[in-house]
Design brief:
single chain, alpha/beta, Spore Coat Polysaccharide Biosynthesis Protein SpsA, Chain A, 2 domains, 10 helices, elongated, binds uridine-5'-diphosphate, binds magnesium ion
């Protein structure tokens, strides 16, 4: 019998969290009205995570797992999980207990009322640094302005997805996967539940500033073409400013003969300004071209080194 509920938990060096996570999520699993599978996706951890997961799998047949051949990143790890799980309903949640497993029951209730997607929206982030809170706040609002689809603010990857949605997501071949965006793009009946994000149970965040920044850029570039237009606007602005400067120089030449602002200073300013405009524009173009390059290479999204607990062997042939 196939499971009715699948829970996907991506793992990157979470050895200190897995057992506590398992303890809390098992209580939820025991309350479910159908068969459950708990799918850990080991994203190339270098600590004891994989060993702990495989021991759990030996003890509890509901625990299944995938192991990626190296660290492919959170979004890809979740994608791998989505490719393999078999439930009618799938819930994605973090291993560090920042996404309380107890909320799953509430999400499932909403699914039973007919919602295809239930995403969790953070109303408070306790104990995260002010820098992270500020950048996250700004990012979600900028993204909402720029994106072609309405991507809800402050909603992370913690969500419930109906089988129909999982099937659509699995058919999307994009390599640069911003799951929160794709989830909004899919459509269907979506709703939010609001929650307070708990602090990490143990260990350090695995999303470094660099990784979060890359994810943010990915979100914007994957769902908006507005940045491409920024170069046009900057070009227009530069043209306007240079016209203004011409007039100013003319004025100075005629009325203030010894002004220090004419000559080399103003030329240097203009050169630097134009240089900056051009470099920014090339950078923006580069973001898009780089993604086109990634897409045409058609490499597989991930490489698996181990799969355990999924009976359908046929799926393994694909990777
Ligand atoms: N994670 C992953 N691969 C990575 C980085 C993170 O699978 O390259 C997992 C991590 O183990 C955790 C989840 O993604 O289960 C969220 O990571 P983290 O808690 O660091 O992110 P934050 O809560 O700060 O957004
Ligand atoms: Mg976390």
């Amino acid at each position: 019998m196939l499971p009715k509920y699948s829970f996907i938990v991506p793992i990157y060096n979470e050895a200190e969290n897995i057992l506590e996570m398992y303890r809390r999520i098992s209580q939820v699993m025991n309350q479910m009205d159908g068969k459950v599978e708990l799918c850990f996706v080991n994203d190339g951890s270098r600590d004891l995570s994989l060993k702990i997961i495989s021991e759990l799998h030996q003890k509890d047949s509901r625990v299944v797992y995938l192991s990626l051949a190296r660290n492919f990143g959170h979004q890809i790890a979740v994608t791998a999980g989505l490719n393999f799980v078999r439930g009618e309903v799938t819930v994605i949640l973090d291993a560090d207990l920042q996404d309380p497993p107890e909320l799953i029951t509430e999400m499932v209730e909403l699914w039973k009322q007919g919602y295809h997607i239930v995403y969790a929206q953070r109303i408070k982030r306790s104990q995260e640094s002010w820098l992270k809170r500020l950048t996250a706040y700004a990012f979600y609002r900028i993204l909402q302005r720029l994106a072609d689809v309405t991507i809800p603010t402050d909603a992370g990857d913690f969500c419930l997805l109906d089988r129909q949605v999982v099937n659509v997501l699995n058919k999307i071949p994009e390599r640069n996967r911003y799951i929160r965006g794709l989830r909004s793009w899919v459509g269907f009946n979506q709703t939010a539940i609001r929650f307070e994000r708990d602090p990490r149970f143990a260990g350090d965040p695995k999303y470094t500033f660099g990784k979060s920044f890359a994810l943010a850029i990915n979100g914007i570039v994957s769902f908006s073409k507005v940045p491409l237009r920024i170069s046009t606007y900057l070009g227009l602005l530069a043209a306007f400013v240079s016209l203004l400067m011409c007039l100013l120089v003319l004025y100075w030449r005629i009325f203030i003969p010894n002004s220090p602002l004419t000559g080399v200073t103003i030329i240097l300013m203009a050169v630097f300004f134009l240089g900056a405009v051009q470099l920014i524009s090339i950078g923006i173009l580069g973001e898009y071209i780089g993604r086109i390059y990634e897409e045409v290479k058609q490499r597989p999204l991930y490489v698996l080194s181990e799969v355990a607990g999924f009976e359908e062997e046929s799926e393994l042939d694909n990777y």
